[in-house]
Amino acid sequence: MRRLAAETLSPPPPSGRLAALDLFRGATVAAMLFVNNPGSWSHVLPPFEHAEWNGCTPTDLVFPFFLFIVGTSSVLSLGKRAAQGASRGALARHAVRRGATIVLVGWALTAFPFNLQRLLHLRIPGVLPRIGVVYALGALLLVAAPVRRKALFLGLATALLLALHTALLSLPGYDLTIEGNLQTAIDLALLKGHLWKKAWDPEGVLSTLTALATMLTGALTGLLLTSKASLKERLAGLGAAGAAGVAAGLAWQALGLPLNKGLWTGSYVLFTSGAACLSLLLALLVVDVAGAKRPFAPLFTFGTNPLLAFVLSGLLAKILGMVKVAGADGRVSLTSFLYERVFLRVGDPYLASHLQALAFLAVIWAVLRYCERRGWYWKV
Questions:
Q1: Whole-prediction pTM value?
Q2: Half-sphere exposure of 345 (CA within 13 A, CB side)
Q3: 26 Cβ contact list (under 8 Å, min separation 6)
Q4: Helical H runs in 40-149?
Q5: Could you give the 3-state DSSP secondary structure of residue 260?
Q6: CA–CA gap between residue 31 and residue 150 (Å, rounded)
Q7: pLDDT in tens, 64-94
Q8: pLDDT for residue 242 is more than 50
């Protein structure tokens, strides 16, 4: 164990990367692309769908896992820059610039194909905009945190965000239904005409508070992984935090605050962050302790170029939806054509739908692998 502690999970290497984190990120990105691109939305198995409102399916773990990873990787990347002599001001400017760039990339992807109508009704919230805003705010908190009290500072900030969000959701006159919650009221007041649906957006303004809390739980995990604790202590800490988070989330749900991705409730934050800790623990055991990297090489490819993977998948999905070809019932999208004429030949419509999602994933992987071989990575 002492030898393993010296050889694995030591402070991050000069590159600032942690192999297990790349694996965890890659698995999360691959899962995101898989569930977002079935052959037919009418034939999706329950584990690959979001909960209708309350509840948490495996698919509902994907986005919070990614925000958790953003927090963990921020500790590594900002720590690397600080070790190279960057001042707090420089780190803060970098955080704001990077966050803003991610938001702009998200808006550009949403606006494609560019026309006046899409621009006038551009969806303001979204996955990449949320990631950009949460990264910038979380990184600023990391920079502002006292050097010797970072964990305490971030822990208190997380607790405050959860308490504030829960209190706001509980204000008189509002409830936790999709029509009657405070988040819907705020979004309609501020962003009407720029939401995912006419009167609802799952990445609403109010839930940014708790999305930031999710990012901070990942940052706390990053502090643990870069600490001077032994390998055994770090693994035990991850396991304990994961179990505690899952248990606390379920207990809070039992007390009346449901697990809900759309509202990003406090119980959902604790539950998904706990599950993320346990997933990262598994990645550490498999990769950094057992050294089993080769079997997971495709996931590392997704994990080291996540922004490119997300943007490529978004563009490809839109193009497949826009291109119309002759189908059995007139002109249909290329996505529907491939499903009906190619993948549905297997017989089972659900199997066909998910096989098409796997094929989509394979195409994105091939492009990423080509870039990886040439050392091309999209970083902002």
A1: 0.92
A2: 5
A3: 296, 298, 299, 300, 301, 302, 303, 304, 306
A4: 62-83, 88-111, 116-120, 127-144
A5: strand
A6: 32
A7: 999 999 999 999 999 999 999 999 999 999 9
A8: yes
